[in-house]
């Protein structure tokens, strides 16, 4: 059985609680309790070091433990500096220090997302008197170097890692045990809703909620899209909206239903093929095919539209989205003993700036029902 751990926001929060405790009591903690909120349980987190920096500020250090998840942040140190201050406004002000990424589409704001903000604010406010205020600065000393090994830049986050997540629990995403857990969650939600939204990762989950989709209808699939679609069909789910980053979902247009890059990666071939079918001139197809990433290829197509007043992005990605829907129906039919699958699939693809590129016809209909 795979061992679960905790996400980065939990360790950042634990360090902040320990630093605040030192400021108030001048005593170091070796373990802190964090209310995860999502899920509703308490985590006990080990504190590696605590030190006072000045009369009004302190620093505490924890280390990431994501369990058996294949996470490159394993054992990385997380620092939290807490300092008293007097001013107007919020009682807990959260800042990103060294190693916390910056959002290119958010005027350089620290990449500390909704769950992390809520986790830190709620846990720390409980420890403050009504008239007390603190500034919390989260620091990831190894964040800048670790970020070079992630796809953060594809989502507009640079110079560090993001504190992203919708839960405090870090589950192994690529093991059979995790697929079982995903299936159990799907079974529970399929008993409540006829329409569900499949999100591969945290970016999709976060964006879907910001667009107003009911969190209870969101199902995380990681890379197990094929098995999860079949399971949904068996459970009688009527409609599935595939909501994801175009660099992942595009694989489905090529019939790749386990999207981990170690197993299969035909993204540039799929994108170039759709461009060719629609008549994009060969020199441009060549550039698309040899683009280093799907994001770079999208940027190139957008530049063509800007220069020539063309409509290639809309044409190509609408064709891809419709192909994804068709491929999903074919996949379900091939894995079913029925002539036709019960489940109807639609798709929505977004870019690195979390802006929707395209919605298939069915995806547009489902978005209208969900938002």
UniProtKB/TrEMBL annotation:
Database matches in InterPro entries: CbiD, CbiD_sf
Keywords, in A-Z order: Cobalamin biosynthesis, Methyltransferase, S-adenosyl-L-methionine, Transferase
Pathway entry: Cofactor biosynthesis; adenosylcobalamin biosynthesis; cob(II)yrinate a,c-diamide from sirohydrochlorin (anaerobic route): step 6/10
Swiss-Prot/TrEMBL catalytic activity: Co-precorrin-5B + S-adenosyl-L-methionine = Co-precorrin-6A + S-adenosyl-L-homocysteine
One Pfam family, short name: CbiD
SUPFAM superfamilies reported in the protein's UniProt record: CbiD-like
Class of this enzyme: transferase
Top-level taxonomic group: Bacteria
Keyword DNA damage found: no
GO molecular function: cobalt-precorrin-5B C1-methyltransferase activity
Family: Belongs to the CbiD family.
Protein name: Cobalt-precorrin-5B C(1)-methyltransferase
Name of the gene this protein is made from: cbiD
């Amino acid at each position: 059985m795979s061992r679960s751990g905790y996400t980065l926001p939990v360790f950042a929060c634990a360090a902040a609680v320990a630093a605040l405790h030192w400021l108030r009591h001048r005593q170091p903690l070796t373990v802190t309790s964090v209310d995860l909120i999502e899920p509703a349980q308490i985590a006990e987190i080990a504190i590696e070091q605590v030190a006072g920096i000045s009369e009004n500020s302190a620093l505490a250090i924890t280390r990431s433990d994501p369990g058996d998840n294949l996470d490159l942040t394993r054992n990385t140190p997380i620092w939290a500096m807490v300092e008293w201050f007097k001013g107007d406004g919020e009682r807990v002000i959260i800042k990103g220090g060294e190693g916390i990424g910056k959002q290119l589409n958010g005027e350089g704001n620290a990449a500390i997302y909704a769950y992390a903000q809520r986790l830190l604010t709620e846990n720390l406010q409980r420890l403050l008197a009504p008239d007390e205020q603190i500034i919390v600065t989260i620091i990831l000393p190894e964040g800048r170097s670790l970020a070079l090994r992630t796809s953060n830049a594809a989502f507009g986050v640079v110079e560090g890692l993001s504190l992203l997540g919708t839960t405090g629990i870090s589950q192994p995403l690529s093991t059979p045990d995790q697929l079982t857990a995903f299936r159990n969650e799907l079974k529970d939600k399929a008993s409540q809703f006829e329409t569900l939204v499949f999100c591969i990762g945290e970016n999709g989950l976060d964006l879907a909620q910001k667009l107003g989709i009911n969190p209870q209808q969101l199902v995380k699939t990681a890379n197990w899209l094929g098995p999860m679609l079949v399971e949904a069909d068996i459970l009688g789910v009527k409609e599935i909206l595939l909501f994801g980053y175009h660099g992942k979902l595009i694989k489905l247009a090529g019939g790749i239903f386990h999207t981990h890059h170690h197993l299969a990666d035909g993204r540039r071939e799929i994108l170039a093929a759709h461009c060719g079918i629609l008549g994009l001139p060969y020199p441009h197809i060549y550039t698309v095919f040899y683009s280093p990433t799907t994001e770079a290829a999208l940027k190139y197509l957008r530049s063509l539209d800007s220069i020539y007043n063309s409509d290639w992005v809309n044409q190509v990605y609408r064709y891809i989205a419709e192909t994804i829907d068709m491929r999903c129906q074919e996949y379900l039919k091939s894995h079913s003993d029925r002539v036709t699958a019960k489940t109807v699939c639609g798709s929505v693809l977004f870019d690195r700036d979390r802006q929707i590129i395209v919605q298939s016809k069915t995806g547009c209909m489902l978005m209208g029902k969900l938002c």
